[in-house]
Amino acid sequence: MAKVISISNQKGGVGKTTTTCALAAGLKKRGYRVLAIDLDPQGNLGFSVGADAETSASIYNVLKGEVKTQYAIQKTDSMDIIISSILLSGIELEFTNTGREFLLKEAIQPIQTFYDYILLDTPPNLGILTINAFTASDHIVVPMISDIFSLQGIAQLYETVERVKKYCNPHLSIAGILLTRYNPRTRLSREVRGTAELIANDLKISMFENYIRSSVSASEAQSLQQNVFDYDARSHIAQDYGKFIDELLAKGV
Ligand SMILES: Nc1ncnc2c1ncn2[C@@H]1O[C@H](COP(=O)(O)OP(=O)(O)OP(=O)(O)O)[C@@H](O)[C@H]1O
Description:
- This protein has helices at 16-29, 44-48, 59-63, 91-94, 103-108, 128-136, 148-167, 187-202, 217-223, 228-231, 236-250, and strands spanning 3-7, 34-38, 74-75, 80-82, 117-121, 139-145, 173-180.
- The protein is of the alpha/beta class.
- The chain has 11 helices and 7 strands.
- The site of adenosine-5'-triphosphate (ATP) has 20 residues, from helix 1 and helix 9.
C-alpha cells in the first residue's frame, strides 16, 4: 500500500516541483515503485520529466471521472507520472458537489497497491486541489526558501492542515520543513533558518536537518528534462536531495 506524500507550500517558487522530481527519482533509484501526480495547473513537473502533454490524459480527466486513474499514468525514466492540465485552474468553480475534498483520495485508491510511494506536487495556494492532496496524504513535506516572507506562510499552512485533520483526514502529519535554495554562507539565510526553527518548534513541526543548497544545476536539469541525479550526481543539489531522502526514510516516512 503506497504512502502518499504531498509536497506543499502555498508560496510560489519555493522548490515544490524540484523537490517532487528529485524525491521521486531518488526513491525510484533506491528501488521503490513511485508515482508522481502533478496537481499544479502550470504543469512544470510533467515538462521536467519529458512527459507527453499533447495526447495523454491528465489528472483533470481523472478527477472529472472521464478516465480511469490507471489509464492516465505515463512511464518515464525518472518516475511514473500523471500530468496536470491548465483546466485544473478552473476546478474551484467546476467542482462544487458535497464530498469534493475526497475526489483525489478516491481516484488513487485503485492504484495504491501498485506503488510504494505516491507523491503529490501541489499548486501554490491552499485551494481545493491542495485540500484534496492533504485529504489523500499520509504526510506533507513543506519546502521553504529562507526569506522572511516564507516564514509568514507557515502558520497559515498549519491552520489548513489542522482543518483537514479535523474534517477530512485525521491521520495526516507534517513530515517536516525542508529549506531549499539555501545558502549556508549568508547571514540572512542563517537568521531565517533560526527563526524558522523557532516557529516550527512552536507549532510542533519538525525541520529536516538536511537542507538543499542553491545550485544552477536545478534549472539546468529541468531545462534538459532530466532529474538532478542523472544530470550531475556530484552536484550540490543531487547530494543534498540524496541526504534529504535518507533522512525522510530514516524518519519512517
Ligand atoms: N536548490 C535550488 N537552487 C537553485 N534554484 C532552484 C533550486 N530549487 C529550485 N530552483 C529553481 O527555482 C525555480 C522554482 O522552483 P520550483 O518550480 O521547483 O518551485 P515551485 O514551488 O514548484 O514553484 P510554483 O509554486 O510556481 O509551482 C525554478 O526555476 C527552479 O529551477
